[in-house]
Amino acid sequence: MDLPLEFRELLVRRRYSANTVRTYCSMFRGFMHFYRKFDLQSITDDQIKDYINFLIEKKNVSISTQNQVINAIKFYYEHVLGREKKKYSLDRPRKERKLPKVISQKELIRLVLAASNLKHQCIIALLYSAGLRRGELIGLRVEDINFDRMQVFIKGGKGKKDRVSILSERMAVGLTKYLAAYSPNYWLFEGPNRNQYGASSVGMLVKRAAKLAGLKGVTPHVLRHSFATHMMEGGTDTRLIQKLLGHEKLDTTAIYTHVSKSSLLKISSPFDSIKTENFRKKSLE
């Protein structure tokens, strides 16, 4: 089913990421198919809510997918058709706040060493050492690595915002060897014919290395979570971690305090403050 021409064009003109464009187009195409016998411009708010309920009750979609569908529908009616936001509303679900999965530094070493070559080792190590998203890593150019200032420049990260992250000394050594061995032209990590490295290829090489290292559930984003958590455990200020990760809200960064071992070690249970003499004999002590 063909999308309205202006739907995709407007997404591109507004410089949405290629990933977001694909997702919105896919989500809206599903909506169009559901109401294929109706004129899109005449569909009511109640019909839209019925579609969302159908996805929840019949398709059992995740909260994340549900939000993406809502965003795609809102984009069409509010931005493509130019309708006012106050005339179009949907109850949004609360997104589940799951604790991020992290791996230990020992597990990270196993993961890096399990990678098949220097290039793959550098990809895994840089995802972790600079706290990068997968899309940010493949978007790096050779010139974005500043060895003098020991910084990684991330151009147009999430929300189209530029930021700077750290280049570790060990990572600088690895990248120096990598640049000498592979001589990339423009993109730091190149695919076939010197094109930009593929996001799916990054996911596959991490998954392959994880399997060889005997680790389960490790993805590129787990490496980013691990970077943030280990920084938190090392005593780095939360606001600095927020800047390194490119989080808009401090609350997003603060979730790593819930998985930081050092934070947990600083907390004592009120059970331990009870005086020993208050316990009867044959108690826990």
UniProtKB/TrEMBL annotation:
GO biological process: DNA integration; DNA recombination
Signal peptide extent: none
One family name in Pfam for this protein: Phage_int_SAM_4
GO molecular function: DNA binding
Protein's UniProt keywords contain Cytoplasm: no
UniProt keyword DNA-binding, yes or no: yes
Keywords assigned: DNA integration, DNA recombination, DNA-binding
Every Tyr recombinase domain range: 98-269
Chain ranges of the Core-binding (CB) domain: 1-81
Protein family membership: Belongs to the 'phage' integrase family.
Protein name: Tyrosine-type recombinase/integrase
Species, as recorded: Luteibaculum oceani
Taxonomic lineage: Bacteria, Pseudomonadati, Bacteroidota, Flavobacteriia, Flavobacteriales
